[in-house]
Design goal:
Elements: H1 9-12, H2 15-42, H3 46-51, H4 60-92, H5 99-118, H6 141-148, H7 155-159, E1 169-170, E2 174-176, E3 179-187, E4 196-203, E5 212-216, H8 234-238, E6 242-246, H9 263-267, H10 271-294, E7 299-304, H11 306-317, E8 329-333, H12 339-345, H13 347-352, H14 354-360, H15 365-372, E9 388-393, H16 401-411, E10 418-421, H17 427-431, H18 437-448
Parallel strand pairs: 5-6, 5-7, 7-8, 8-9, 9-10
Antiparallel strand pairs: 1-3, 2-3, 3-4, 4-6
């Protein structure tokens, strides 16, 4: 992390990095993640693993290599599961726990979960067995109409907030270099999820009633389950701002069996995207409510990539929410005007073969776009234009800058709140570790709310 704060960072956070990252995603990360998810389903059995690849033939030497990979995977999976249970007991349990044991539990959790995640590399030799890196079970147009109505008239019910919110449970706190960290959790108000929502909270030291940023992560990013991931908003805590980082549906602790983080969102398209975003609306509303109850400071919503799209969608929907649930500012990093642009026209669409999978399920490109545009229809945000901060990259081919500017123009966001860098989708967040002007601008906005 230190190198990203140095002048060398300007050489790293450049478009060449984005070119490499996209190539690595296509040829390595997504294929090995699919195999990794298959290993989870196989529970250590080579036969069960190969059943998911009926056309694949492996020589005895490769089968032995696969068996060793599955053995290691299963060992790391069980270790991660047991450590997570211990962590849960220490952080949320009723028994007294010493600070030393709390710190040890968190360090152990990150150690074993990182090791578990890194077992992906053991499946790299088997990438050639796959035809696709996403397990697609796309819904047909007829199924979508049956569920949501001919013109999407049932979507309002899907996105409607519940009459009451679940109780929010708060964990014990652990000291970190920038203050204190703790977690909140609550049952998801979404019937489609029916699981537990977790969010990590970074609390600044010595600040009474701090302003808060709720910051969503990107697709397939499991920020709370790796050691030393890049944290593009860490500087905000140093500036006295509380940062809440929710774990999105189907990521991290919320991954479904047989999938990797975020895959379910793609594999069940387009209905999965509606389930995902409607759940995010309800879950973020609960978190906004909790933020209001625990601090009198203003609340901003933001995120990177898909997290930014979530934040902007919440800011638009909140026009119809009670006043206390309306955010005070928006902070969007590498974003577009509609999710449909990224999934149909962005560079990752080709990596996932998203358009091809929809076509096989009976979707024309125009029909898919028509429905996906109903996911996040353009409307004004509930916050004034001068309280919106946008961060984009001129070389972003996943969420193109021109797409983001279309919405920023519609919202009439002033130029001084638009930060543009000669970077791409992956190098923009990296560059923010050193180029902190967007964070400073957000702090100024929150200080005036």
């Amino acid at each position: 992390m230190r190198i990203l704060r140095s002048p060398v960072a300007r050489l790293i956070a450049r478009p060449w990095l984005d070119f490499l990252a996209l190539g690595a995603g296509r040829r390595y990360f997504f294929p090995v993640s699919r195999l990794w998810a298959m290993a989870r389903e196989a529970e250590g059995s080579v036969d069960h693993f190969m059943e998911a690849l009926p056309d694949a033939k492996l020589k005895p030497r490769k089968l032995r290599k696969l068996s060793a990979a599955l053995d290691l995977f299963e060992h790391c999976r069980l270790k991660a599961s047991m450590t997570e249970q211990l962590w849960d007991e220490y952080l949320f349990g009723s028994a007294e726990v010493s600070l030393e044991h709390l710190l040890m539990a968190e360090e152990m959790r990150l150690d074993v979960r990182t090791a578990y995640n890194m077992t992906r590399k053991r499946f790299a030799p088997f990438r050639g067995l796959l035809h696709t890196s996403v397990k697609m079970v796309a819904t047909t147009p007829e199924q979508v109409v049956q569920r949501f109505g001919e013109q999407g008239e049932h979507l309002a019910t899907l996105f409607r907030l519940p009459d009451s919110f679940p109780a929010v449970e708060v964990s014990r706190r652990i000291p970190v270099p920038r203050g204190e960290d703790y977690w909140i959790r609550f049952p998801s108000p979404s019937a489609a999820m029916a699981d537990m929502v977790y969010a990590r909270v970074h609390e600044p030291p010595g600040v009474t009633n701090p302003p808060t940023l709720i910051f969503g992560h990107g697709m397939c990013v499991e920020f709370d389950h790796y050691h030393n991931l890049v944290d593009e908003v860490a500087g905000l805590v140093e500036q006295g701002i509380r940062v809440v980082r929710p774990e999105a549906p189907w990521h991290g602790r919320r991954v479904l069996p047989g999938h990797y983080g975020g895959e379910q969102l793609l594999s069940t398209a387009p209905t999965g995207m509606f389930d995902y975003l409607s759940a995010q609306h309800k879950e973020w509303a609960v978190i906004i409510d909790w933020c209001r109850k625990t601090s009198s400071g203003p609340v901003a919503v933001g995120g990177v990539s898909l997290g930014a799209q979530t934040a902007k969608s919440v800011a638009m929907a909140a026009n119809d929410w009670p006043k206390a649930l309306r955010p005070d500012a928006v902070f969007a990093v590498i974003h577009c005007s509609h999710i449909a642009e990224a999934v149909l026209d962005g560079a990752l669409s080709d990596v996932w073969n998203f358009s091809g999978a929809l076509r096989d399920a009976g979707w024309s490109r125009d029909l898919a776009r028509k429905w996906l545009l109903r996911l996040d229809p353009m409307r004004q945000a509930c916050v004034p234009p001068e309280r919106v901060v946008s961060v984009t990259g001129t070389h972003d081919v996943v969420t193109r800058q021109s797409w983001a500017y279309r919405q920023m123009d519609y919202w009439q966001v002033p130029d001084e709140n638009r930060f543009s860098y000669r970077r791409g989708h992956f190098s923009v967040p990296l560059g923010m570790i050193r180029d902190t002007q967007p964070l400073i601008r957000l702090r100024e906005i929150l200080s005036q709310c």
